[in-house]
Amino acid sequence: MSSVSNPAQVGTVEATIAAGINIALVKYWGKAPGTDNRPAVGSLSLTLDAPGTVTRVAFDPALAADTFRLNEAEADLRPVTRLLDEVRALAGIATRARVESRNTVPTAAGLASSASGFAALGLAAWQAAGLGRAGDPLDRRLVDLVRRGSGSAPRSLLGGFACIDVETAGVHPVTAAPGLEVSLVVALCADGPKSVSSRDGMALCAETSPYYPAWVESHPADLRAAEAAIGAGDFTALGEVMEHSTMKMHACMLASRPPLRYWAAGTLAALEALVPLRRDGRAYTTMDAGPHVKALCRREDEAAVADALRPVARAVLIARPGPAAHATTWDAGAR
Ligand code: PMV
Predict the structure, then answer these.
(1) Which of 10, 130, 140, 213 has its CA 20 to 30 A from that of 219?
(2) CATH, domain range 182-319
(3) Cβ-Cβ contacts under 8 Å for 102 (sequence gap 6 or more)
(4) Can you give the pTM of this predicted structure?
């Protein structure tokens, strides 16, 4: 698109995008060498119907500088401007943007708010700048753009199960067998933001954990097993490989120097509460770079899993597979 014909230069153009958070079943932990934020391992996730992020980007010729408000308050502009600068370079425009974001995810609590955040911001900026429209096939440059913000963000561009390939760093959907109807029950197990960002945690782990090479080496087999389980509709195989990938990642973290422990007392309380359901193969658990526990279960078991978690968790929410990042209106909001 030529810079002269780009509408962002002659009037205000805007786009609003909603994106759901995604939870990794086979985990991404570790970065490839270089500056492009490419992963050292692939990953496979489930994008949820809620919570998530709604972001409106308006390129406005009257603005002297970018602005960013998150949940009605001024917020750190730097990562937003970095992404907008890339979009402006691709679109051949110089127009500054007003960015507003509404997050229904507890920000930076290890619930992957950065993934839905960068997916919503990236796609909204992309469309507002005229680089693409709703319904276009996923553009590889958009995938790279949001990945540079957050390694797990490309997965929130897609709905349902999504896989990031370690060789290409591209993302593709994984089609589930028709009978595989799952829910993820999220137990919030502690308050406050996490103490170590995933970026810093990954670097520490790669530098100091003796288990890191084994983590990287054993990872592709988990990814293959999870893809096969989803394709075959094998809930048990999927739950088991998710649990295995999770525990390997946390073992690798714990063996760092100093140790990296994202779990809180409430994390163990939630795991304990699920022991009977796990024994019956009805609930499998995963944790990320934070204290919260997410339990994968069949749709018919979501109420039982939530009931088991409620006495020990700060809050429990039941989520199901959600759509790809998509256009919405600012007033529609996110649940
Ligand atoms: O997207 P990041 O850089 O916040 O990393 C996410 C890492 C984990 O949540 C721990 C695992 C994953 O694959 O989402």
Answers:
(1) 140
(2) 3.30.70.890
(3) 53, 54, 55, 70, 71, 333, 334
(4) 0.94
